[in-house]
Amino acid sequence: MPEKIKVLLVDDDEDDYIITRDIMDDIPGRNFALGWASSYDEALNQIRQDEYDVYLVDYYLGAHNGLELISKAVQEGSKAPFILLTGQSDRATDERAMRIGAQDYLVKGTFDPFVLERSIRYSLEHAKSLAEIQKLNAELEQRVEERTQELAEAIKKLEHTNRSLEEAQLEISKALQKERELNELKSRFVTIASHEFRTPLSTVLSSASLVSKYKTEQDDDKRQKHVDRIKSAVSNLTTILNDFLSISRIEEGRIYNVPTTFNLVPFASEIVEEMKGYLKEGQKIDYRHSGENDTVTVDKQLLKNILLNLLSNGSKYSAEGKTVYFTTSVDQSTITITVKDEGIGIPKADQGHLFTPFFRAQNVTNIQGTGLGLNIVKRYIEIMNGTLAYESELDKGTTFTITFPNTAEV
């Protein structure tokens, strides 16, 4: 049985505690344990002990209010999510709560067991996502510190050698350039991460709030629309996190090439089938294999990640009703794979930066993405000892061609 989620209600009214407890008892599965703190000081003491997974905080707490408690707890380093309980819907208060660290808000007397369970679940997921961002940001900061230390050591070494002035200037220039590049990478990471996470999280919060307003059977279509928006937003968050984590693992040298022998045609067909649920209306993937042989020896998981990324891009950057052409061929020594779309293409001025981390072409600013996908694809291909080439024409589409050495015994 899953471990219980410990929830602390901070409210100076015992009747509200009893009401909240009854609502929580009606949650299907009842996988929650509710505690109660009746004052600001008592709540702050329990938060400092870090024994609860999530906090429900009433706005009114005697001499203090819930916003003060949340702000104080966040300043002291609390990582658990906070949900503000208000007496009535107040947009200014709600927005202020989100700015100081609350993950969500609920209007007292209007939520039911399903709304409460959904709010707790999404708040926990939000907190988990933010923790991942903070972890990755800390790793980047550590690398900046390491580069700075390298610069200091280089300067110290130069002071004790008889190198020429020209050599000394060149080494310092290289060290400074590395530091500038890393600082620029960190800046791009923070900008991209904050923007890409804010959009789907805002969708989740707004749709979760609206779903609770549709309670009749006549509202099923409206309710389902917001549920679908939430699912799509959570899927986007997962994709973004996976991209960040993939880059981290590559940088740490934790991605390995582990070839296995398998048949390429059924493998590629499964990927095409998996992609159908992500295509735009009227789009299709035209997959074809040339030649009688389809036995290959490559890393199956890395190849799947590469193909899903390229096919997803082909769909994302193409209009509805377009076709993505996917071909494979195998001979005695080489595996060749192409993915061709009929999309917006890549401007000539941007093609030289296509595989730069976090880089996005000037004509895709309105299409969601992190700018990491093609960088990950290229580095996976290099790990697999393959090569990647591409051709692109603005408003006509892009073709990626991948080649791998084939060591399979036919």
Structure, described:
The protein has 410 residues and is an alpha/beta fold. The protein has 3 domains: 5-111, Response regulator (Rossmann fold); 120-251; 260-405, Heat Shock Protein 90 (2-Layer Sandwich), CATH 3.30.565.10. It is 52% helix and 19% strand. It contains 11 helices and 14 strands. The protein has helices spanning 14-25, 40-49, 66-75, 91-100, 113-159, 165-211, 220-251, 264-275, 300-316, 348-351, 373-383; strands at 5-10, 32-37, 54-58, 60-61, 64-65, 82-86, 104-107, 260-263, 284-290, 295-298, 323-330, 334-340, 387-393, 397-405. The strands form 4 sheets. The chain has a 5-stranded parallel sheet, with helices on both faces. The chain has a 5-stranded mixed sheet with strand order 9-11-12-14-13, covered by helices on one side. Strands 4-5 form a two-stranded antiparallel sheet. A hairpin with a 3-residue loop joins strand 13 and strand 14. Helix 5 (113-159) runs antiparallel to helix 6 and helix 5 (113-159) packs parallel to helix 7. The longest helix has 47 residues, at 113-159. The chain starts with a strand and ends in a 5-residue tail after the last strand. The mean pLDDT is 81.
Largest sheet: 5 strands, parallel
Number of domain modules? 3
Strand order of the main beta sheet, please?
2-1-3-6-7
Low-confidence stretches: none
Structural class given helices, strands, pairing?
alpha/beta
The total of beta strands comes to 14
What is the topological layout?
Blueprint: E1 5-10, H1 14-25, E2 32-37, H2 40-49, E3 54-58, E4 60-61, E5 64-65, H3 66-75, E6 82-86, H4 91-100, E7 104-107, H5 113-159, H6 165-211, H7 220-251, E8 260-263, H8 264-275, E9 284-290, E10 295-298, H9 300-316, E11 323-330, E12 334-340, H10 348-351, H11 373-383, E13 387-393, E14 397-405
Parallel strand pairs: 1-2, 1-3, 3-6, 6-7, 9-11
Antiparallel strand pairs: 4-5, 8-10, 11-12, 12-14, 13-14
Helix pairs in contact: 2-3, 5-6, 5-7, 6-7, 8-9, 9-11
